[in-house]
Specification:
Layout (H helix, E strand, L loop, with lengths): L3 H14 L10 H50 L6 H24 L6 H25 L16 H4 L16 E8 L2 E13 L2 E4 L1 H4 L3 E8 L2 E4 L5 E8 L2 E4 L2 E11 L2 E12 L2 E9 L3 E4 L2 E7 L7 H8 L11 E3 L12 E3 L11
Parallel strand pairs: 2-4, 3-5, 4-6, 5-7, 6-8, 7-9, 8-9, 9-10, 9-11, 10-12, 11-13, 12-14
Antiparallel strand pairs: 1-2
Helix pairs in contact: 1-2, 2-3, 2-4, 3-4
């Protein structure tokens, strides 16, 4: 079958070869149709090239991601059990590699489909869980005791007979350090606050710098975290206000309602959360799932030393995708998700302290 280009050339040549007296004028409609064929062939060629480039990018991402994921899993499996210092070094290396893998995913979001993104994020969560389990397995637990915040309690209370605690009491007390379990999930060496009601809770930079921070089972509390955590986990929190310095990697929010969250991070994943406002600085894209009535606004908190904490975290202060939210429950192209919205400027809170 002759190509459109060949047909076009033949038509032109035929006109040139004819005697001037016998020249036949080709109808405009034929010329237009010939031109349309040329343009359509060019469009198909460009579309095919773009599709090929996209497939090549996705194939490269998939191969590179799986290779690095396998390397991390092998490194975890080789972690020694007897030598605490050596094991800690391996676990630190794994932590860095997981953060680098997360950054690779964030940088690839522009050409990944929702399905591919979801699979990659799930794989990273599995790696983080495996890291926490391995840390608990190979690094001996530190013995620690939670201290009551009421340090000035009456001596008569101190001399009273101790009351037996329920087996789950250690899981839900205000404190820090140690290997903490929340709802059966081992969260590794963490600091944070659990089981508090109507309290003002604060941690300074030296307490949380580059550690995993857990906030769990809080009600009507105000929390200030000054410093740069490695990750931040917020679970089962109601009617509370949480402000946090730059988080190096991810913030995970689950089972929260009626809250206000203020933090910078590399990635935000929010599950099963309602009626919550997020003042956000995020260098990738925020992800929500099974959430309703969420509001987003740009991060606007400041405190002495926050610039140094940004440097520690490695976050880009000039890159903020606070209003780029992916809702995994809303896949309708071209129609905004009804589960989140941008907080109108007049309704945004401007001061926090």
């Amino acid at each position: 079958m002759e190509s459109p280009v060949g047909t076009h050339n033949a038509i032109c040549q035929g006109v040139l070869d004819m005697d001037n007296n016998d020249t036949v004028k080709i109808p405009d409609r034929l010329l237009r149709r010939d031109q349309d064929r040329l343009e359509e062939a060019e469009r198909r060629k460009e579309a095919k090239e773009k599709h090929s480039v996209s497939e090549e990018k996705i194939d490269y991402f998939s191969n590179a991601f799986n290779t690095e994921k396998t390397a991390i899993e092998e490194l975890l499996s080789s972690c020694p059990k007897g030598d605490r210092d050596q094991a800690s070094g391996v676990l630190e290396e794994v932590t860095i590699k997981i953060q680098q893998l997360q950054k690779f995913v964030n940088d690839s979001i522009v050409f990944l489909t929702q399905y591919e993104l979801r699979q990659a994020q799930a794989a990273i969560q599995d790696l983080q869980s495996a890291l926490a389990e391995k840390r608990t397995e190979v690094v001996p637990k530190k013995k620690f005791a939670f201290r009551s915040r009421n340090a000035g309690a009456k001596k008569s209370e101190a001399t009273s007979a101790p009351q037996p605690e329920s087996p789950q009491s250690d899981e839900h007390k205000v404190g820090s350090g140690g290997n903490v379990a929340v709802d059966g999930v081992i969260c590794g060496e963490q600091c944070g606050f659990t089981s508090a009601d109507s309290q003002i809770l604060t941690k300074k930079a030296e307490e949380i710098q580059q550690r995993d921070v857990l906030l769990s089972h809080l009600t009507n509390c105000k929390v200030r975290l000054l410093g740069s955590p490695s990750t931040l986990h917020i679970k089962h929190v109601r009617d509370s206000e949480i402000l946090c310095g730059p988080v190096s990697s991810s913030v995970f929010v689950d089972q929260c309602s009626g809250c206000t969250f203020v933090f910078p991070c590399q990635q935000l994943r929010t599950h099963n959360t309602t009626d919550t406002q997020v003042y956000l600085h995020v260098t990738s894209r925020a992800i929500i799932e099974d959430c309703t009535r969420l509001g987003f606004a740009p991060f606007n908190w400041s405190y002495p030393g926050i610039d140094a904490d940004f440097e520690v975290s490695g976050l880009d202060k000039d890159r903020n995708n606070w209003n780029q939210v992916d809702d995994f429950n809303w896949l309708a192209v071209g129609t905004p998700s009804p589960n989140w919205s941008v907080i109108a400027e007049p309704e945004r809170k401007g001061t926090w302290d």
